[in-house]
Write a structure and sequence with these properties.
By secondary structure, this protein is mostly helical. It is built from 2 helices and no strands. It has one domain (about 1-60).
Length: about 60
Amino acid sequence: MKKFLLGFAIGAGFGAAMGLLFAPKEGKKTREELFLRLKEACEKGKEAFQKTREEMMGCLGK
């Protein structure tokens, strides 16, 4: 199930990036929006990693 969700998240992110790149907006605005969304996705990924790490450490009793 986790592999599916990871694949889905990666696919959704890639699809969103492609949609932004091909959207009829000014290039600078598109790049700024893409950068902002990638930054947000990176932060969410870090948070998910930290949460999973903490859960795993709790299971190991450390």
